[in-house]
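User: Can you model how NAP sits in this protein?
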Amino acid sequence: MSSVLITGASRGIGAATARLFAREGWNVAVNYSRSRSEAEELARELSGLGVRAVPIQADVSDPERAEGLVREAEEALGGLDAVVCGAGIALPQQLLTNTTAEQWRRLMSVDLDGMFYTLKAAIPGLVRRKRGSIVTVSSMWGLTGGSCEAPYSAAKAGAIGLTKALAKELGPSNIRVNCVAPGVIDTDMNGHLTAEDLVALEEETPLGRIGTPEEAAQAICFLASDRASFITGQVLQVDGGMVI
Ligand code: NAP
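Assistant: Here's the modeled complex, given as structure tokens:
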């Protein structure tokens, strides 16, 4: 049975990804930072599917906690076959000139540093086993840049650079590294959007709607699985055609 650690798995895309992995028979480490009851409830739900599922608290922006997260996941699941870096936050939309240094640092520390800390801790175990896959979660803004989303765009572009560099670095160890870049997905992260905002976004999207967490999860699970065994260093957009 294969095992996966998913950061930011308590809600949204990460939770949908955890459900999909479990349905496909994977053991799952469900990382959360603050949403303890959601993560515990999700782990119970996944255990009901006959897989091992463990909730693990860790703020991935804290290097010691990120390392502890990986160690706890490896111990609980008997090693890891895949790591999904999905933990992320967004800032209120604002001009870069109105962004404080603290906001910039917080965004970077969760969305980019958190990937570094998690992967730095997880890669040695994957290399020892000479197999494995990593999926990072970026965003369409990491590809195109979003006005009034500069820190988020910078972090998500960083995730793409990290993915490509690691794909080259880890390919010889039989470890694949890919990235999913979602468009607008229906999660709490977009809870601030008004009905008018949503209509405008839907009109901008060739498929005429926003995406579901399950649709992003399908791409993540595909890239993590052996179905993508000859794919590495790629960015798979799940955005209804918003960015073509
Ligand atoms: P969400 O519903 O707000 O969920 C965010 C998840 O990240 C939660 O599980 C949260 O856990 C976790 N998280 C936040 N800070 C954390 C930290 N410091 N340490 C560990 N976990 C942390 O967001 P989402 O829409 O599912 O987003 C998931 C990923 O997709 C993010 O990387 C986001 O940038 C990316 N994305 C989303 C969209 C979209 O339209 N929704 C589009 C493009 C990319 P707690 O609740 O426990 O804190």
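A couple of observations from the model: Helices lie at 12-23, 36-47, 63-77, 101-129, 140-144, 150-170, 195-204, 213-224. Residues 7-14, 31-35, 59-61, 86-89, 110, 114, 137, 139, 182, 184-185, 187-190 surround NAP (CB under 6 Å).
User: Helpful, thanks.
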